[in-house]
Amino acid sequence: MLFIYNLIVVLADFILKIVALFSKKIKLFVEGRKNVFKILSDKIKAYDKTIWFHAASLGEYEQGLPVMERMKSRFPNHLIVLTFFSPSGYEVRKNNTIADVTVYLPLDTQSNVEQFMKIVRPDMAFFIKYEYWPNYLNALKDKEIPTYLISGIFRKDQIFFKWYGGFFRQILTQVRFFFVQNESSKNLLNNIGINQVLVTGDTRFDRVAANATKQHQNAIIEQFVKGNDILLAGSTWSPDEKIIAALLNKSNFKFIIAPHEIKESRLQEIEATFNNVCIRYSQANVITIAAAKVLIIDNIGMLSSLYQYASIAYIGGGFGVGIHNTLEAAAFGKPVIFGPNYQKFEEAKQLIALGSAKSIHNAESFMQAIDQLYFNESNYLAACEKSRQFIASGKGASEKIMEKVNALLNFNDDTNRR
């Protein structure tokens, strides 16, 4: 099966290079990997010690950041090597300050893995939430490098738990220890014979809680807000924006729209959806912004701090494959609204159960959610407090992970001495 997998990866590499001729995103994916080994060789010397973190994309980076910060503090003489699979993660966070080296992850071919391991030589490896690359994991296991999964989450419909999933179950055995978000994930792993599992919760709670305590000041945003009711819609897609626009002439809300994609065609689409009463953040100043009704955030990286300015938040993606990050808004004590596809997101289900979130399926139910969560003052105040309490109750995953990692490292040190 590994032989077939390797053939597929080589074929995918070839196909991606062709697709890159026609797709800007795939071009970034391909071009960004061309100089990875040179970058690694230039920045990592033979005497350096390293700890490797891998994030699929931007969300996983944010999820892993609290652990990266703690590992950097715990091992100040190690370099942090951070890899991304997706351009949407790498291009936004390639200049982050936590990692000493940030690169794309070379495709999981045997030759790439051999070269990567030869240069990086990690003392430990952390994979964030998911992504299980057989050749990388095999190499880590062969070299007896402790490998951990943090904030993992598993569902019974995944291939690991199917009768035909033997190859994929074998991949999981290469991980030394799993730190998972919930008991159901632990039980699923236990049922296939993987017992090195600890339920620690979701490290995103630590990340968003820390973000909400920082001072974020923005003169342009503050001039736009200036005492108005603000509906902030984050990571939106076209179906989300069309529903939100129903509120445009039916309330005194001002709107901040932070779309998931910021290419020109999407920005123009949003402007048309909101009847061209919009201003883009990149074109705004403290004078022009005050009269605007809709502010479009046409950059990546601001959203997580903008929720502080919201009266209520809308989280996009629920009319597609699934909603985006609800925790960033909840950390600022905001009620949240999102579309119908949220079932894979435990935090969304919990926020609904607490009464601080509502799922909607059309413009009518969106208006009803606004009435119930915002214009009913007692409901609104209760929802805000429930959001804050929810985040507070979920904190601590990063510390639990560090305690266990330290214990495992000490155990291994003692074993080696004996």
**Fraction of residues in helix:** 40-55%
If you average the pLDDT, what whole number results? 94
Overall spatial form: globular
Strand order across the biggest sheet?
Answer: 3-2-1-4-5-6-7
Largest sheet: 7 strands, parallel
Number of helices: 19
Question: Termini separation (Å)?
Answer: 39 Å
CA-atom Rg in angstroms: 23 Å
Low-confidence stretches: 414-418
**Beta-strand percentage?**
15-25%
Characterize the structure shown.
Strand 12 (312-315), helix 15 (327-331) and strand 13 form a beta-alpha-beta unit. By secondary structure, the chain is of the alpha/beta class. Helix 4 (58-74) crosses helix 19. The strands form two sheets. Strands 3-2-1-4-5-6-7 form a seven-stranded parallel sheet, with helices on both faces. The protein has a seven-stranded parallel sheet with strand order 10-11-9-8-12-13-14. The model is unreliable at 414-418 (pLDDT under 50). It has 19 helices and 14 strands. The two termini are 39 Å apart. Helix content is 47%, strand content 16%.
Q: Which secondary structure elements does this structure contain, and how are they paired or packed?
A:
Blueprint: H1 2-19, H2 24-31, H3 36-43, E1 49-55, H4 58-74, E2 78-84, H5 87-93, E3 101-104, H6 110-120, E4 122-128, H7 134-142, E5 147-152, H8 166-172, E6 177-180, H9 183-191, E7 197-199, H10 204-213, H11 219-225, E8 230-236, H12 238-244, E9 254-259, H13 264-273, E10 278-280, E11 294-296, H14 303-306, E12 312-315, H15 327-331, E13 336-338, H16 346-354, E14 357-359, H17 363-375, H18 377-394, H19 397-417
Parallel strand pairs: 1-2, 1-4, 2-3, 4-5, 5-6, 6-7, 8-9, 8-12, 9-11, 10-11, 12-13, 13-14
